[in-house]
Every structure is written in C-alpha cells, then in structure tokens.
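Can't paste images in this forum, so I'm doing it all in text. The chain is below; anyone willing to post the predicted structure tokens underneath?
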Amino acid sequence: MKNGQSVAIPFKAPPAPQDVKARRSSETYSVSKDMFKVRSNVHAGMIKKPLEKYHPNAHRSRLPSPTAVMPYKNSSSIVIGDRASEDRRLYVTSNKNTFSKNANLNTSNGGIIATKTKWRRHLQDL
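Text version of the structure:
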C-alpha cells in the first residue's frame, strides 16, 4: 500500500538474452585429447616445425629418431648354432655347482681323494 491505495508490484523483467558463444570456455579440447592426439614426427632438424606451447621435453627439440628397417618377408633373425658345441652346463646354478654331492669316495688314499677333488673343481670352473 502506498498513500492508502493498493499498488500492484510487477514481476521482474526477464533477463536479456545472453550470447551462448560468449559463455563457452576458451579451452576448445580437453587435456587428454591434447596429450594423445596423433602428431607428426617433428624433430630438431626440421626446417618448418609447428609452433606449440613450451615444454622442456618437447618432441620438436629432440634429435630425429632412426627409422626402423623392416625385414624381408619370410626371413628369420634366429641363428641356430652348431649343436655339437652346445654347453651342457650353461644353466647350472652356482648353488648346484658349488654344493654338489660328493661321489662316495670309499677310500682313504690321499692321492685318489686329491685327484677327485681336483677334477671336481675343474668341472665347477667350466
């Protein structure tokens, strides 16, 4: 009421239409999309490199990586050696090599025991 008379109060005026493009984020793509996008093979020796944000380990500052040479079809890089020269003790562990069971020496002859011990030590060094 105003001066003894009823006065109608109008509703608030509707807000002015806003520009949707003005409210958008300035980021046009996500961080993960930027990290995992397919990039050209840029390196320090290129004449024209695309500009990008500074990064200490950027690919554009690295030396060119050597290109991989594809092998011919149906060729193998495995070389099978001479089976006669195979080392039979190649995979003997040091534990098995050092702590092997002594053959039962049923003798007390010092010369025989010394020869057998010398032979066993020789086999450990193979």
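The first helix runs from residue 20 to 23. The mean pLDDT is 80.
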